[in-house]
Amino acid sequence: MSRKLDCLRCGSSMEHTRDEKIQLGEHGLIWGDISNLIAGALEVAIYTCNQCGKIEFFQIEEQVEDQIAKMECPSCGKTHDIDYPKCPFCKYDYYAELD
Question: What is the per-residue pLDDT for 28?
Answer without folding.
Answer: 60
